[in-house]
Amino acid sequence: MATARPAPDRSLVDAPAVDKLDGLLLRRLAARMDPARLRYALGRSTVDPPQGSPVATLRFRDRRAVLGLVLDPEEHFGDAYAEGRIEIEGDLVAALEAAFCALSDAPANPLAWLYTRVPNSLRRARANVHHHYDLGNDFYALWLDEQLLYTCAYFESPDQSLEDAQVAKMDHVCRKIGLRPGESVVEAGCGWGALALHMARRYGARVRAFNVSREQVAWARARARREGLDDRVEFVEDDYRAIRGRFDAFVSVGMLEHVGRRSFRELGGVIARSLDPSRGRGLLHFIGRDRPRPLNAWIRRNIFPGAYPPALAEVDRDVLGPKRLVVVDVENLRPHYALTLRHWRERYERAAAEARVGRDERFRRAWRLYLAGSEAAFLTGSLQLFQVVFAPCGASGAPWTRRGLYEDGPGLAWNAPTS
Amino acid sequence: MATARPAPDRSLVDAPAVDKLDGLLLRRLAARMDPARLRYALGRSTVDPPQGSPVATLRFRDRRAVLGLVLDPEEHFGDAYAEGRIEIEGDLVAALEAAFCALSDAPANPLAWLYTRVPNSLRRARANVHHHYDLGNDFYALWLDEQLLYTCAYFESPDQSLEDAQVAKMDHVCRKIGLRPGESVVEAGCGWGALALHMARRYGARVRAFNVSREQVAWARARARREGLDDRVEFVEDDYRAIRGRFDAFVSVGMLEHVGRRSFRELGGVIARSLDPSRGRGLLHFIGRDRPRPLNAWIRRNIFPGAYPPALAEVDRDVLGPKRLVVVDVENLRPHYALTLRHWRERYERAAAEARVGRDERFRRAWRLYLAGSEAAFLTGSLQLFQVVFAPCGASGAPWTRRGLYEDGPGLAWNAPTS
User: Fold this and answer.
1) Within the 226-285 window of chain A, which residues sit less than 8 Å (CB to CB) from chain B?
2) Could you report the per-residue pLDDT of B169-190, keeping only the tens digit for each?
3) What does residue B410 show for φ and ψ, rounded to 5 degrees?
4) Is the dihedral of CA B112, B114, B119, B123 positive or negative?
5) Which residue in chain A has the smallest CA separation from B385?
6) Average pLDDT of each block of 10 consecutive residues along chain A (419 residues)?
7) CA neighbor of B172 nearest in space, from B385, B400, B393
8) Which residues of chain B have pLDDT under 50?
9) Is the pTM of this model over 0.95?
10) How many CB atoms neighbour CB B366 within 10 A?
11) Which strand (E) or helix (H) includes residue B65?
12) CB A160: neighbour CB atoms within 10 A?
């Protein structure tokens, strides 16, 4: 009797071959990511970094996720993580820091510049803003401070609360430009209006604040009415290009990085024509880079379409220089943004753990990655935070020294009477 | 008897024609210089500015001087003034301010870029320095402060003495980079050595200071020996390109503007390789511009051959960015340089009045013009003075805030232990 040949047990026969392939892929990835101190795991295979002991483990659910990272880590990591095809065992921020350090010296994707060449037309500008900021006020209220400031805070010391550090940031801005009662300010990109209201309430300024996000402007207007500040603060639902008139000060906190570099000259023109040529001064607060580079592709696609954090050189050359606006003061607040993001992430994770972050798991993981990745980017220096104070060339109103910024009183004395 | 016909009295016959020509030339000049509020005078002709009342009068000795100014004021004013073919009646600085304001918006000489394209080879660099700085220590001692600091002072208040303000400047620099006892510093372009000695004496630093001017280095070495600091300060008679080794800090005060922009990348390379990648930080103090422009042709030819004061954008793009050195802090001290120059000019004029400035009248007038013109350039914003603090990208030693710079104590806390 011919006995039936048993079907081969593939799990036994092919297992070594499969493990070998997985190991090969992981070693390729480890070489690509060197000197990132990360362990890589897929199935039964594990590969340690070529040098040093690992700070965390990247565990892959499938081979495709490994392959994507070998080909283009910047492009593929985000989706794979959001979809749960990569898990990070250990500290998420530390793992991302290690990855960023390794990738920062690698040649950038040669096609990446393509993404950044599209000028932000007005329609696109609105679409970009709506993509990110119209997720709903409730979502941001879960993890921002109570006044909804979605920009880098200024921590007078690292143990200050986020609430206080956001107020300190607003004061730092107002004191740098030395706002005085009755002065006029235009704000480009005002978010939920906290700074505009602060300038009116604490400094007695008259403020016109621009924002293309309908939901944020509605929120800001309601707050202005509630606080009885709507006679001194006007919220305009429009783009910065619609700014008209002359002001004592121009302020923009966290907008420049969304403008797109093809619009830098136009923005400089708007600023210059808005400022009183003898008394005027301005402040730009923005996420920047150490040198011109495109933003991480995944962040640009998933979180901030159209965003481009510029090098200081680009801001001076393209925004300020052509209109003879001169830098008076630059402060790099990079560590403050890392700390701000840590606060946001802790609040976000608390909300997620309490099931208050609705939507699907992919969304929750994408936002976790965005917050942790941004923190890692500021820690490693892949991103910077610049506050740039400037004035029309030849205007003589700049404060004599910066000492007044660090003393009691209303801040720097712009346009002080000369002796 | 035929009487001899008297020779025509040309002064009577041609005078109206001559006056008419002079008036025509002056009106042409007034139009060229508009809106400078200057009166122009040649012979018996006088022309007022098209708008406003004049702040001073330019009196020309000959027609050639007027013609030169009509053709190219930047190019011809200096020589004509030095040679006494132009006199200024009224305040010299105010007259030059008016002229700079008018010319700053005019298109630059289209050939001017030619002058700035020549890279400063080592030999040329030495020649350029010798041209200016080897005029003799005695000459500079006539009008600089007692320590011979030939760079912008930092006046804690406008009524501070020049002597004190130069010491305050050295402290400002040392406190910005937070020098601590035992730390090592390399200084590029050390002049007569005052800052190098100050860093060793007051901050306990070990300093290696470079300068290509033989006379200055000899002076500095003698002073170091006299003060018993020659074990902690080494003066090297060489170019910044000869810097070797690793240091906690890199400092350069008043050299960058003489380096020439074709050498910016090389300078950045020298700085980056000199700095400890985790603890290192640096400071560049230099004369700059609001936007890229060649230096005034006369100054470049007569006072500072090879000089090029850069825009901040050029320093970030060409010196710092390529080596991933990141701006931490920028301070614009423009009004401080105008005041420094006023002090220098007052001392210079006192020395000249007491016949202590030797040499010929042309030299004396050229230096008077250079000092007054530089003061006017800083007053009008044609020149800026930037102090830029930077660190290797990703280094985490920057101070948490700038508050410590304005409080008692040793200045900013770089590389403070993290909590």
Assistant:
1) none
2) 999 999 999 999 999 999 999 9
3) -85, 10
4) negative
5) A328
6) 52 72 94 93 94 95 93 87 94 91 56 38 56 73 95 98 98 98 98 98 98 94 98 97 98 96 96 96 97 82 83 98 97 98 97 84 90 93 96 93 96 85
7) B385
8) 1-2, 106-119, 419
9) no
10) 20
11) helix B63-71
12) 16
The structural domains of chain B, ordered by start, are: 16-105 (3.30.1050), 123-405 (3.40.50.150)
Residue A342 in contact with partner chain B when CB distance is under 8 A: no
pLDDT of A294: 82
Q: Which neighbouring-strand residues pair with B332?
A: B386
- In single-letter form, the type of residue at position A97 comes to E
By C-alpha distance, which of A189, A187, A199, A247 is closest to A224? A199
Torsion of CA A203, A405, B309, B72, to 10 degrees: 40
| Residue type for position A189 | G
Token code pair at residue A268? 């400089």
* Amino acid (one-letter) located at B171: D
CB contact under 8 A, A321 and B381: no
A403 at B interface, C-beta within 8 A: yes
Q: Suggest the residue from B328, B329, B330, B390 to mutate for an interface test with chain A (most A CBs closer than 10 A).
A: B330
State whether residue A293 sits within 8 Å of chain B by CB.
no
| Cβ of residue A407 closer than 8 Å to a chain B Cβ | yes
B56-60 and B86-90: which strand pairing? antiparallel
Dist. CA A1–CA A105, nearest whole Å:
69
State the Cα angle at A386 between A384 and A389, rounded to 5°: 170
Considering only CB atoms, B326 lies closest to which of A155, A321, A384, namely A384
Q: Which residues pair with A281 in a beta bridge?
A: A249
Residues of B in contact with A313 (CB under 8 A): 312-314, 316-317, 321
Q: Does A160 touch chain B (CB under 8 A)?
A: no
Rg (CA), chain B: 25
Q: With contact defined as beta carbons under 8 Å apart, do A195 and A177 qualify?
A: no
Token output for B34: 């508009």
Distance CA(A216)–CA(A213), nearest Å, equals 5
Report pLDDT for B76.
87
Cα gap B419→B416, rounded to integer Å: 9
Q: Which two tokens stand for residue A271?
A: 């600023």
> A308 — phi, psi (to 5°)?
-150, 105
pLDDT (0 to 100) of residue A4: 54
Judge if the upstream peptide bond of residue B35 is cis by omega within 30 degrees of 0: yes
Structural tokens at position A87: 């898990």
CA atoms of B163 and B159, how far apart (whole Å): 12
Mind telling me how many Å the CA of B151 is from chain A's nearest CA?
18
Is the peptide bond prior to A110 cis by the omega test (within 30 degrees of 0)? Answer: no
> How far off is chain A from B364, nearest CA to CA, in Å?
29
Number of H helices, E strands in chain A: 17, 11
DSSP state of B409: S
| Mutation for testing the A interface, residue in B264, B332, B384 having most A CBs under 10 Å | B332
φ, ψ for residue B186, nearest 5 deg: -115, 135
Query: What is the least distance, in Å, from the CA of B264 to any CA of chain A?
Result: 14
Q: How far is C-alpha B106 from the geometric centre of its chain's CA atoms? A: 22
Is B396 touching A (CB cutoff 8 A)? yes
Q: Which strand ranges, in their side-by-side order, compose the sheet holding A38-42?
A: A45-47, A38-42, A56-60, A86-90
Find out whether A88 and A58 touch, Cβ atoms under 8 Å.
yes
Instruction: State both tokens at B246.
Output: 């690793």
- A155 CB neighbours in chain B (<8 A) are 400
Instruction: Give me the count of residues in chain A.
Output: 419
Query: Do the chains contact at A321 and B311, CB–CB below 8 Å?
Result: yes
Report yes or no: B265 and B336 within 8 Å, Cβ to Cβ.
Answer: no
- The vertex-B369 CA angle with B364 and B370, nearest 5°, equals 100
Count of A–B CB contacts within 8 Å?
122
